[in-house]
Amino acid sequence: MLYLYKIQTKIVDICFYFSCLCMLYLTFFISADVIFRSFGVRLFSGTVELSEYALLAIGLLCAPWVYKRGSNLKVDILIANKSDNFKKYHAVLVDVVILFTCLFVFYYGAYSFFESIERDTYVYKMLVFPEWYINWIIPVSMLLVSTEALYRLYSFFKAES
């Protein structure tokens, strides 16, 4: 189990680094595009379109990394005055909700991904490319968050026994 968790951690880190590259893309190319446009030169076609896809990648591929480190937003004011036992079981309940929500989104994301491959659908905007180039992000991200939730639940029940 520990070996699989280490592999999952490496995959989560790779996804995080990829989202960092997307952030660098947003920072550099949008700035450069604005500067060049101010001089009347249009060098980069499709910058706005690629930035939309980069935002999707940043949000979804960072999610497993943020969740793994416990840096996600929490509203602890509701349970601040509760007992430690209540807080522990509340965290388990939250992990169960996260698990089932991510598995639900994973299922439909994977369905959409495989359907776009099967139908060979393309995105036609400024750039033209297969739709699955974008659709892979959703099931991968949700699977990684789901495995982290499973590991947290496994750790909790292992500690309880």
Give a brief rundown of this model:
The protein is mostly helical.
What does this 3D model show about the protein?
It is found in: Cell inner membrane. InterPro entries: DctQ, TRAP_DctQ. One of its GO terms (cellular component) is plasma membrane. The complex comprises the extracytoplasmic solute receptor protein and the two transmembrane proteins. Keywords: Cell inner membrane, Cell membrane, Membrane, Transmembrane, Transmembrane helix, Transport. This protein has one domain (2-160). A two-stranded antiparallel ribbon has the order 1-2. The longest helix has 37 residues, at 2-38. It is mostly helical and 161 residues long. The chain has five helices and two strands, in the order αααββαα. The radius of gyration is 20 Å and the shape is elongated. The protein starts with a helix and ends with a helix. A hairpin with a 3-residue loop joins strand 1 and strand 2 (128-130). Helix 1 (2-38) packs antiparallel against helix 2 (47-68) and helix 1 runs antiparallel to helix 5.
Overview features:
mainly alpha; 5 helices; 161 residues; elongated; two-stranded antiparallel sheet; single chain
Give the topology:
Layout: H1 2-38, H2 47-68, H3 84-119, E1 122-124, E2 128-130, H4 132-135, H5 137-160
Antiparallel strand pairs: 1-2
> What is the alpha-carbon Rg in Å?
20 Å
User: Ends: how far apart?
Assistant: 17 Å
> Helical amount among residues, as a percent range?
over 70%
Oligomer: single chain
| Parts with pLDDT < 50 across at least 5 consecutive residues | none
Total of DSSP H or I helical runs spanning 4+ residues: 5
For the record, the count of structural domains works out to 1
* Strand element count: 2
Strand content: under 5%
Class by alpha and beta content: mainly alpha
Q: Give a quick account of the main beta sheet: strands, pairing sense, barrel closure.
A: 2 strands, antiparallel
